[in-house]
Design goal:
The structure is a homodimer. The first copy, chain A, is built from ten helices and 14 strands. The mean pLDDT of chain A is 92. In chain A, 36% of the residues lie in helices and 23% in strands. Chain A has a six-stranded mixed sheet with strand order 3-2-1-4-7-6, sandwiched between helices. A five-stranded mixed sheet of chain A has the order 12-11-10-13-14, with helices on both faces. A three-stranded mixed sheet of chain A has the order 5-8-9, with no helix packed on it. The first copy, chain A, is an alpha/beta fold. At the A-B interface, strand 9, strand 12, helix 4, helix 6 and helix 7 of A face strand 9, strand 12, helix 4, helix 6 and helix 7 of B.
Chain lengths: 309, 309
């Protein structure tokens, strides 16, 4: 039952899941929902229908407002929203909101940057980064958002100035399920946290940090299985350490001052462990970063019946 | 038609193909055959049957001898043959031959080595390396055998002293067919050499050599497609350059003196290009390296009806 204090329907429409929260006027989540209705499960042109199917009871109030972050603004998704080029901040992202219904529902733009002629992109993480900075009262930080495509973000003076994507989670899944290594690893598709072996994970991180390269180091998962040196569960933890350690090898110099980790606790805990092995301190922030980012953007948006672009 | 000069049936039984040659007493291939009957296509216990099916007409001479290199000696293959630990040479490999039929058919052992508690293995490449050294009259060299699992081998004083495996070919296939990157790449399963774009390949090598890591650099294939900066065929060549460049980053210091590339010409040509970008000279040797290796081993084997182990 809603109490009437909800001022924003905050939505994170990701690739595999659709999450939402009703935020009060301080930006705190009063109610939360999650559906397995990510981008890949929505038929072409079906975003409006899925939105109303999931949120009709939360949205049919006369004064309800809604901001959507994530992949909803991707090409062929709900409505393509151009990326905001870095450096970018709350001002540019709020100005770049793309209205689905003027004054009621808008999609937050993603961010893009460029390094040596190669572009990089994010959709959703920009909102979490701005929320985490706001939550922690920081204007300068190195932030890491682990996941299928991990993001390393440099924020200076409250702006996202540069970032880089690492296909770490996807690489773990590719090696675990589709490569030769799969033969020596537990068959279950689940079990990411079940039977996690911290020593094996740390060994994997250490091996990656010594160099040699992922192409070589990953093969050790095969040979250790071949010589029966380690059980499958330990090898899975070691492989996780190998790919995360490989990502950490490419960390920016600024990371030495400590990083903010944003994400689910199981994964950020692994990154915190691996970063500690590099001598890098970290601080973890959970899902509230995304809600806070949408709250901050909502305060800057032009809701008064005045359509944006 | 055989002329009677054939003294050895040389077989390379790999994971995906079965190749053979009849060698004369100087080790030259007189006739060659190739079948799509690699390890993965042979049913358990079916190696003897496949061998006779493919080579009965070549093998039924009273004095015919046969040496088999490759995966035939793997666990669950024709007959498991223990690895020869490095350093190893023609002497140890010949002494370690595993007889399928005493004095007639033997399998060459693979080689193993260890680095910081992590084992590495090869089956088949050891024979090619010894053959290439013999062909070139070398006793010291750094040799590279590109492929699904590339091998970098250090030979000193005619012995294989150390080597390392890199999952380069497998990684290319994983990223090309099973990752998010597949969306921006040509759909055809073929076309490795068709439409090869040397500039895009060189750009990929250069990007890898600048660092940043494969987990990050591979994502650029996605973003370049997203911004329509490059056509799919160019991106495929660039991805090839990225993974080969990543392998080269881990090259041993000795490689600076030049390397011997062993393998099919299309792939060794790519490696030669990438190595040139690192300032490393290379010399290519083809399939004759494997036949020569088996010839050299056959000269050292104990054929006189005297069974080995």
């Amino acid at each position: 039952v809603l109490t009437g204090v909800a001022t924003l329907l905050a939505v994170d429409w990701g690739t595999s899941s659709l999450r939402a929260a009703l935020l009060d006027d301080l930006g705190s989540a009063q109610l939360e929902r999650s559906y397995p209705r990510g981008l890949t499960s929505v038929p072409s042109g079906g975003f409006d229908a899925v939105f109303h199917e999931c949120f009709a009871d939360w949205f049919d109030e006369a004064d309800q407002r809604c901001l959507v972050a994530g992949m909803a603004g991707a090409r062929s998704a709900w409505q393509e929203v151009p990326y905001c080029p870095c450096p970018t901040s709350v001002d540019e992202l709020a100005a770049g909101l793309s209205w689905i219904r003027p004054g009621r529902i808008a999609i937050v733009p993603g961010a893009c940057c460029e390094s040596r002629g190669v572009p990089d992109v994010m959709r959703g993480e920009e909102t979490q980064v701005l929320g985490a900075l706001d939550l922690l009262g920081l204007r300068d930080a190195t932030l890491v958002l682990p996941g299928t495509h991990s993001k390393w973000v440099s924020a200076r003076d409250g702006r996202i100035v540069q970032f880089s994507t690492h296909m770490t989670g996807e690489m773990f899944a590719l090696l675990r399920h589709h490569s030769l290594l799969a033969r020596g690893l537990p068959a279950s598709a689940e079990g990411f946290d079940d039977g996690f072996d911290t020593q094996a994970f740390d060994d994997g991180v250490a091996q990656a940090l010594r160099g040699g390269g992922l192409l070589h180091n990953a093969f050790s998962i095969r040979t250790l299985a071949l010589f029966d040196r380690k059980p499958g569960a330990a090898l899975l933890s070691r492989l996780s350490g190998l790919v995360i350690g490989e990502e950490l090898l490419a960390r920016p110099r600024d990371a030495a001052d400590g990083v903010i980790l944003i994400g689910a606790s199981g994964l950020t805990a692994r990154y915190a462990r691996a970063l500690a092995q590099c001598g890098v301190a970290s601080h973890c922030v959970g899902a509230q970063a995304g809600w806070r980012g949408l709250h901050v953007l909502a305060q800057r948006a032009r809701w008064a019946g005045r359509p944006g672009r």
